[in-house]
Design brief:
Number of strands: 0
Largest sheet: none
Strand content: under 5%
Number of helices: 6
Radius of gyration: 26 Å
């Protein structure tokens, strides 16, 4: 085993390339701002370090298109409306292996179908409950008239 092979094995064993990690690193990268009185080369250096950390978290076969897909996915998740449902969705998706547009497209469709179904079921239950209440009132009125 060469030194390179040993390094690759260690990197594979200890480098967390999960969607959650990628998301955190991308969040760090896009939130970098120049500090008060920080010189420009130092500011750029911090950006480059954050970029390098993000790149090492991506699979070694990642392309520019893969990175852009991750960026689109990041902003799509980041900019969801702030609701409990969406926070739960974010938490779940950030734990997937690779967050991408494709992953989100599938997850968003599935989640929307679930939400739509839940609304329909809730409306039906409400209508049934209301209808049941009306029937009970009619029965009581009929009994009183008898």
């Amino acid at each position: 085993m060469t030194a390179f092979d040993a390094y690759a094995a260690l990197k594979a064993a200890h480098n967390l390339s999960t969607g959650d990690r990628q998301y955190q690193l991308l969040q760090t990268f896009v939130s970098i701002h120049q500090n008060h009185k920080e010189n420009l080369p130092e500011y750029l250096s911090r950006s480059q370090v954050a970029r390098d950390h993000l790149l090492t978290a991506l699979p070694t076969t990642a392309t520019a298109a893969d990175l852009l897909s991750t960026i689109v996915a990041f902003f799509s998740l980041q900019n969801l409306e702030d609701t409990k449902e969406n926070q739960l969705l974010k938490d779940t998706l950030q734990r997937t292996t690779n967050i991408s547009e494709t992953t989100l497209e599938t997850a968003y469709r599935k989640e929307q179908t679930s939400r739509t179904t839940n609304v329909i079921v809730a409306k039906q239950e409400s209508a049934n409950s209301h209808q049941g209440g009306q029937q009970q009132q009619q029965q009581q009125q009929q009994q009183q008239q008898s």
